[in-house]
Specification:
single chain; 237 residues; mainly alpha; 3-stranded mixed sheet; 10 helices; 3 strands; 5% strand; flat; binds heme C
Length: 237
Amino acid sequence: MIPGDFQIKKPTGKQMAKFGALGVVSLGMFVGVAIGLTWMISAWLGRPVVFGYSEGPTQPIAFPHTTHVQELGLNCLFCHRNVTEGAAATIPSAGLCIACHKVMGDGLEEVEKLRDYVADNRPIDWVRVHRVPDHVRFVHEAHIRRFSGVKTVVEEWTNLKNPDVANEIRFGEALRINPNAAVGQTLEISEAQVCSVCHGNVGGMTKVEQVRPLKMGDCVDCHRDNAAPTDCTTCHF
Ligand code: HEC
Ligand code: HEC
Ligand code: HEC
Ligand code: HEC
Ligand code: HEC
């Protein structure tokens, strides 16, 4: 060996073990942080990173909104009765369905299933399509009240400082209610029409599916655009 030649000391077994453990711990931390960030960004943007939107879940009874809304002309509020009164829209009990289906739909397989549930006095466990986490507060009533009524469509609020939310609606929201909406037009918006702002055209769905993120970023953006409160306690308990 040439004098002065530098050689790294061979690490002892103990040191190797230490390095190994450190490596595993920092890799674990890195992965943890990466997963955490992905989760936060996806919660904010409302882009489900892993699963994406898919078609809605299969329900215990294949209930078609199309038949009841488009063909029979039933109003959303006829079944979702609490939507203009409280937080939850609510799904009707089988009792409401059977009022018609005692006599209507003889021989249809899915209607027979419905009759079996009622005969056995079993509740129908509908699978939820939309759901906010437990730490989030959502209230249907406030949204329905706010977006229904006679409104003039505006590109941006006429008075940005003090928007006339009672008589005006922004073009973006108006388009979701009526795809033919135009700026300057006056729309008479029924309570049932407001549903499409967040749920899309449910009346045209044979199987309900989610069409809007309804994640924090989506909620907050709409609140900001519509002069609604954006402080954390509005939506978090
Ligand atoms: C005849 C009763 C009836 C009418 C009328 C009706 N619905 Fe429903 N709705 C149901 C039932 C039953 C379910 C649960 C089964 C399902 O998801 O398909 C449901 C589910 C839903 C869901 C999904 C709930 C969840 O789990 O997230 C939405 C959103 C919805 N309805 C909106 C509407 C809108 C908007 C209208 C009017 C265009 C409407 N409904 C009209 C009975 C009705
Ligand atoms: C106002 C009356 C009325 C109410 C209330 C009603 N339905 Fe119906 N439903 C009908 C009629 C009419 C049809 C069409 C029957 C036919 O095609 O012979 C139908 C069809 C159906 C079908 C069969 C669709 C198909 O084409 O296979 C199902 C399933 C069904 N309804 C479930 C329900 C459920 C569940 C509820 C309660 C949430 C409900 N209905 C409430 C009138 C009603
Ligand atoms: C501002 C957006 C928005 C509007 C407008 C809206 N919804 Fe919802 N809806 C939601 C969100 C968010 C959820 C999930 C709420 C939860 O998990 O508590 C939901 C859930 C539901 C559910 C299932 C849970 C429940 O509350 O019973 C039904 C049914 C429903 N909506 C029907 C309607 C109907 C009918 C209308 C129109 C009259 C409507 N919604 C308008 C955002 C909206
Ligand atoms: C389409 C626009 C829009 C979307 C999307 C929206 N909001 Fe709102 N929200 C509003 C407006 C406007 C108000 C104010 C209503 C009023 O004038 O009282 C409001 C009010 C509220 C309130 C206050 C209700 C009360 O007690 O008075 C809560 C809570 C709320 N929103 C939660 C949510 C949550 C959670 C989401 C997402 C899941 C959401 N909102 C999505 C527009 C929206
Ligand atoms: C307009 C309603 C609204 C407001 C205002 C709001 N949030 Fe949220 N927040 C939500 C919704 C909805 C979710 C659930 C997103 C999801 O489905 O994963 C959420 C989720 C979260 C989460 C958990 C992340 C997750 O993935 O679940 C945190 C943390 C959070 N919010 C913090 C805040 C803070 C801090 C503020 C105030 C600066 C705030 N939020 C204001 C609606 C709101």
